[in-house]
Amino acid sequence: MLGKIGRTQLYGKQGPKQLYRKLFGIYTAIILGVVVILAVFFCIVSKFRVKEANLEKMYRLKGEATAYLEQCAQTADHIQNELFRTQTVLEDLLYYFRNDTETYLSNRLERYAKMDSLTYNGFDTFTENILKANEDIVHIDYLSYERGELTACYPGNKSYKNVQRESYIEQIKNGNLANDNEFSFLKEIRDPGAQDGEMLQSVGCMLVTYASDRFETFMEGQDWPEIVVLGSRGSLVADSAGKYTPQELMAADDNGRLEELTSSYTARESVGDYTVYVFYDKALATRLPWTLFLMILGAAVIVFSLGVVLVNLYLRRLALRLDYILDGMHKVTVGNLDVRLQVNEKGDELDLIGANFNEMCGQLDRYIQKSYLAEIEQKNAEMEVLQNQINPHFLYNTLEAIRMKAIINKDRDVAKMLYSMSVIFRSQLKDDNVITLVQELHYCKKYMELFEYRYTGKFSFQIDCPEECMNLPVIKFIVQPILENYFAHGIRSELEGNWVHIYVEAERPVLKIHVVDNGIGMTDEDLEQMNRRLRENTDNSRKSIGLLNVNRRLRAVYGNDCGVTLAHGEDGGLHVTLTAEMGDTNGMEKGTVD
Length: 594
Hints:
By secondary structure, the chain is α+β, with helices and mostly antiparallel strands. It has helices at 4-11, 18-85, 87-98, 101-114, 123-133, 166-173, 214-218, 246-254, 258-262, 282-285, 290-333, 349-409, 414-430, 437-454, 480-490, 524-536, 545-558; strands at residues 137-144, 149-154, 158-161, 178-179, 182-191, 201-211, 226-231, 236-239, 264-271, 274-281, 434-436, 459-464, 473-475, 498-507, 510-517, 563-568, 574-581, 588-589, 592-593. It has a six-stranded antiparallel sheet. It is elongated and about 140 Å long. The chain starts with a helix and ends with a strand.
C-alpha cells in the first residue's frame, strides 16, 4: 500500500476518501430520488385505481337504477299487451271508460248473467291479479278521456275514483308522471273496434305507478355516489344528494356543464320519460386511503434505508480496490515498469483496467509502433492488392479457353481469338484504372467472343447501353469477373441456348450494370449466403474471388452503399447487379488510389 507521503502526493490534500464521499453522496441522492419518484408513481397509480374503482361503483349504481327503470317500463308494456290480448277485460274497461258507474254496473250484471263462468273477469279482477304478481307496483290508475274521471286501484282490491286527483289528472295531461315519491308509466288504451282506414281511437289511459323509494335501496353500502332521477318535465323522482334543483340539473345537462356544476364525475342515462343522474365528487373519487398511503410511505423508507446500506458496503469495497490500483500507478510514476496487479480474469471493469494496465506496462512501445505502422501500410497497399489480385486469374482462364479451342478446331478462328485476347491483355497492361463504360463493355464483348468461338452454336450474348451512359467513368474490370464466374461455374456446356445479357440503367446519381444469364444458377441457401458475404464485405476464402473482389473494389471506391448483389434470373441462372455512383471514382487516377 502507499505510504503516507506517497498517498499525499498522489491524492493531494483531499485524501483518498474524497471519491468515496462523492460517490456516496451521489448514490444516496439517486436512491432518494428514485424512491421518491417510485413513491409518487405508486401514489398516482393507486389514486388512479381508486378512481377507477369508484367510477366503476358509480356506473354500477347507474346501471342498477336504469335496469330497474327498464324493468318497470317492460312490466308496464307487458300489462298493456296482456290487457289487449284479453278481449273480455278490454271490452269491460272500454265500457267503463265511456259510461257512468251505474250504467257500467248494470251492463256488468247483464254480461255476467250471460256467462257460464262463476266469476266475472273484468278490468278490476285483471288489475288485482297484476298487483298481486308485481309487488313493486304501488297502484294502477285508469283515466277516462271522455268523462275525465280517474280510478286508482290498489292492492287488496281497493279502488278510488277522483279522490283528491284533480291536480294529478292535470299533471298527467301535462306529461308529468312523477309525484309524491312515485313515478308512473302511461299506456294508452285504444278502441280496436274503429272503422277500417281510421286510426284506433284512444279512449283513455292506464298508469302503472311505482314507489321511488326503491332507488334508496341501491344506495345501501355505497359511500359517496349520489343519484338523482328526474321526469321529462323536471319532476323529481329520487334525490339522494338534495344539493341541486331539477331545473339546475336539466339546464346544466342541456349545456354540457354537469361536471362543472357538480364538480363531480357524472353518468347519465335516459329510460323513456325518465333520466338517471349519478354523481361522484372528484376529490372523494380520487382520495387515497390513509392505510394505503402509510403502506407506500413505509415501503419507501425501507427501500431507501436498505439501498443506502448496500451502497455503503459496495463503495467501501470499491475504495479498497481503487487504493490497490492507485498504488500500482504510483510505482509506475517513479519508474518501476515491472509492477503487475493481481486481477480476476472473470472480474469486472476494475479487473479489466488492471489487466490493461499490466499489458500497457509490458508492451507500450511495440503496441504503438504496431498499431500505427500496420494501419498506414494497409491503407497504402489495399487497392493495389485488390486490383492486381484478379489479373493472373483472368490471364489463366483466357489462355485455357484459347488452348481448348485450338485442341478442338486446330487452327480455325484461332487468329480472331488471339486478337480478342490481345485486346483484353493490352487493356490490363496499358489502360488506366479509370476508363469509360463503353471501354469496359468493349472488353467484355471481346472476352465473350472468345467463349462464343469455344461454344460455337451453344452460346450467345447481348450488350445494351444507353448512349448517354457510354462515356461515364468507371473503374476497370468490374464486369469481366462476373462473366468469368459464369463461364467457370454457370454455363451448361453440354446444352445449346446458353446466353448472357448485359444492360445498363442510369438514374442519377446511381449507375447500375445488370448481368443476366440462364445458366446453372445457385440454390436459395447458397444465394443467401453469398449475398450475406457481399454485404459484410468478407473474403475469408478463395472461392468466388471474382465476385468478392469486384464487390470490395466497388465499395472501396464508391462507398458502402454500392457493390454487388445476386438474385435468381427469370429464366434460371443468376441476375448480378453492379451498383456504382455516376462520375465518382473516389480519387482514382492512372492506376493509383489516393
